[in-house]
Amino acid sequence: MSAASPNPSDPVDATTLDAVVARLCSTSDHLTHTRSANGGDHKLPSRDAIVEMVEGLRAVLFPGYFGTSELSPESLRFHVGATLDRVLRVLREQVERCLLFTSDAKPLDDEARAERASEVTREFLKRLPEVRRLLATDVKAAYEGDPAAPSPDETIFCYPGILAVANYRLAHELYRLGIPLLPRMITEHAHSITGIDIHPGAQIGPEFFIDHGTGVVIGETCVIGTRVRVYQGVTLGAKSFPLDEKGNPIKGIPRHPIVEDDVIIYGGATILGRVTIGRGSTIGGNVWLTHSVPPGSRVSQAQTQLNEFRAGAGI
Fold first, then answer.
1. With contact defined as beta carbons under 8 Å apart, do 222 and 205 qualify?
2. Which of its termini does the chain have fewer beta carbons within 10 Å around, N or C?
3. What are the start-end ranges of the H helices in the chain?
4. Residue spans of alpha helices (H) in 65-179
5. What are the backbone dihedrals phi and psi of residue 80, each rounded to the nearest 5 degrees, phi first?
6. Backbone torsions φ then ψ of 267, nearest 5 degrees
7. What pLDDT does 315 receive?
8. C-alpha to C-alpha distance for 229 and 141, rounded to whole angstroms
9. Are 149 and 155 contacting, i.e. CB atoms less than 8 angstroms apart?
10. At what angle are helices 47-61 and 160-176 packed, to 10 degrees?
C-alpha cells in the first residue's frame, strides 16, 4: 500500500480531515477566536473556570455546606480567606477576558482592561457581605414558606431555588458593575442545573423564595419586591418589543413585570409586559396576565367544572 493510499480502517482520509480542520479554524466568520482592541490574540472566558469559581464562592457564602465540610471555629477564618484568595484570582482573570465583549464603540485596550478587571474584583469583594445577608433572608423565606422544609439546612443543601438565587445574586453584582457576558454565564449555569432561568439584570428584593422551581423564568428588567414567593413554571416575561429603524430589538427598555412586596404567584402563571402586580396580591395557578392589578388582588382562572361520567361514558 502506498503512502497516499487511504487506510480502510480510518473513518476519513487525511486530505478530507485537513480540509475540514482548515475551514473550522478559519477566521472568516464570527464564531472564531476573538482578538483584542489592539489586534493581539485574546483568550476567551473559560466556562469550566467560571463554574469552579462560583462553587468556591458558594463555599465562602455557605462555609461547611459546600466545599470542605471539615471545618471548625478555629479553621473557618483560614478556610474563607484562602478560598476567597483563590477565587478572586480566577474572577479577575475571567473579568478581564469578558471585558473584550463590550458593546462600547471604543473598547478598552489591554492595559486599561487589566486595570478595570482589578477594580471590578476589588469592588465585588466588598459586596460579598451584602450578598451573604440577602441569601440568609432567602434561606429564611424558604424554610418558613415550605412546610416540607424541616430545617434551614435542608433548604441550603437541597433546594434548587436557593442554588439558582445564589448564582443570581452573585451575577447581579457583576451585572451592576457593567461586566459583559460573565453574569449571564453564571446564571445560565444554574439554569442548566435547576431549570430556573433568572436574568442577572433582574432586581430582586430580600426573602425571595422559589418553591420547586423548574421552569421559572424571570426576565432582565423585572423588579421584584420583598417577601415574594413564586412556584414552578412561573414566567415573568415580556410581550412583543419595539424594533429600531434597522429592525433590531431595542435593548434595555423596561419590558418585564414589577412584582411588589408580599406577592404569591402559583405554578404555571404567566405574567407578561411592564405590568405591576400590586402589594399583597395572589396570582393563581396557570393564570395568563398581561395587565396590572391593584394591591391585594386575588386573580384566578374561571371556576372548574365537574362532570361525572358513568359506565364508561366520557373520557
1. no
2. C
3. 14-24, 47-61, 73-98, 110-145, 152-158, 160-176, 182-194
4. 73-98, 110-145, 152-158, 160-176
5. -65, -45
6. -55, 140
7. 58
8. 9
9. yes
10. 110
Neighbours of 314 (CB within 10 A): 8
Residue 283 makes CB contacts below 8 A (sequence gap 6+) with 263, 264, 265, 266, 269, 271, 277, 289, 299
Q: Residue 81 pLDDT more than 70?
A: yes
* pLDDT, position 200: 98
For residue 221, the one-letter residue type is T
As a whole number, mean pLDDT of residues 66-74 equals 84
The owner of cell 480510518 is 10
Stretch 229-245: mean pLDDT: 91
C-alpha cell at 118: 482589578
Q: Which of 186, 165, 189, 190 is nearest to 177 (CA)?
A: 186
Using alpha carbons, list the distances in angstroms from residue 148 to 94, 131, 152, 155: 39, 26, 11, 10
Instruction: State the sign of the Cα–Cα–Cα–Cα dihedral 58, 59, 60, 65.
Output: positive
In contact, 124 and 132? CB cutoff 8 Å: no
Distance of CA 16 to the CA centre of its chain: 41
Q: E-assigned strands of 240-287? A: 258-259, 264-265, 270-272, 276-277, 282-283
Phi and psi, residue 248, nearest 5°: -95, 145
Locus of grid cell 443570581: 168
3-class SS of residue 97: helix
Angle between helices 160-176 and 182-194 in degrees, nearest 10? 170
Q: How far apart are CA 280 and CA 298, in angstroms?
A: 9
CA distance 181 to 195: 20
The model's pLDDT over 204-223, given as tens digits with 9 standing for 90+, comes to: 999 999 999 999 999 999 99
Would you give the DSSP letter of residue 268? T
CA distance 177 to 189: 20
